[in-house]
Amino acid sequence: MGLPEYEVTALDEVAGEIQLRVRFTGRISCPHCGEEKLRLKDRRTRRLRHENWGMRKTVLELETRKWSSRCCSRSFWQRFPGILPRVRATEPFRRSVCQKHFDGISRSRLAQRERLSSATIERWFVWYLKLLSGERISRECPQVLGIDEHFFTRKHSYATTFCDLKNDKVHDVVLGRSEASLESYLLRLEGKHGVEVVCMDLATHYRSLVRKHFPQARIVADRFHVIRTISYHVLACWKELDPVGSKNRGLVSLMRRHRHQLTLQQQRLSIYLNDRPELEAIYCFKQRLCYSLLEKHRNQKRCQKLARRFLRDIAALRCCGLAPLMALGNTLHSWREEIATMWRFTRNDGITEGFHTKMEVLQRQAYGFRNVQNYRLRVGKCVLRFSQRLVCPPLSA
Fold first, then answer.
1. How far apart are CA 266 and CA 260, in angstroms?
2. β-bridge partners, 314
3. Domain membership of residue 175 as a residue range
4. Got the DSSP string for 73-138?
5. 3-state class of 346 per DSSP?
6. Phi, psi for 139 (deg, rounded to 5)
7. What is the CATH number of the domain that holds 167?
8. CA-to-CA distance for 25 and 43, rounded, in angstroms?
9. Mind listing the pLDDT tens digit for each residue in 14-73?
10. pTM score
């Protein structure tokens, strides 16, 4: 039956409905004093909806008793594992209904099939999400942490996502992205000293928060965001040198790509750059810088060579005389330690960005969220499903 410490005493089928008479065989004690010496005061029979047997409705008939403790003289109705008080359905049945609802069956259709009301299904679904959310909140901070923001609503602006990059899970979603809005959450976060690696984009406010609340963590810049920052400043410099050519969408596509991604288009780009030697120098410099940043799994000796080359490139950018490239040099100089860490660590924020895509799909399906707590509950269930790590919550005592 999916319920522990129960014994079936009789089984009947009435009008296509399976009726199981069961009795509880576990230990009974007073919830107030723990005494097992009890005196019977009253009894009654509860009819509880259980998981369907095939396509047939299943009902449990369970005798519950009212006891009085001989120690504290307090009375109580007997509690059962897997069955909450004042509820007319078992937890396995409620979980199965919630899972069907999340898999795409509408509330009205599911209510008609299971002979329930739409309000009951919605109430059960919120209960189920709170159980899963409680399991996520009780976990300690992950060893490899990913931090990134995503848009929530116009009223509340952005929200910050904390991801467990080692186990491919969302740890939590917190409203806001500034240091003031995240300060209270990070102060009560448990297990911060166990965080070893933190992956993030080039966001200064997140870096200051990590240095303050995760002092033992190594910050690793996300490679995708670093390459995108370089391409953005190079295209801005190209726009100043050649305003007409920078509006050609075909040339923009060629300038953004890496050299190994060009095949037949390489000749067209070479013809364009041959007439503009200053652009050709900038393009070659950008390609060399990007290819050095794309290296992974390098040992200490190789990282030292890459670091010296990287520092020379930063110095060349900061004294080149072109405003966009000088700004790029200042940015890379500010993040030089976090960028250099990419050569030893392969972790990145791609998992977090993938979860953000799932969150956007969830928001579109719900036509937006207003309540932050409901959004956190739905995100927790959504991510568990998409990561294929759905764990059934434990039966309540």
1. 10
2. none
3. 144-221+348-365
4. --EEEPPBTTB-TT-SB-HHHHHHHHHHHHTT--HHHHHHHHT--HHHHHHHHHHHHHHHHHHHHT
5. coil
6. -75, 150
7. 3.30.420.10
8. 16
9. 888 888 898 888 888 888 888 888 888 998 898 999 988 888 889 999 888 898 988 888
10. 0.67
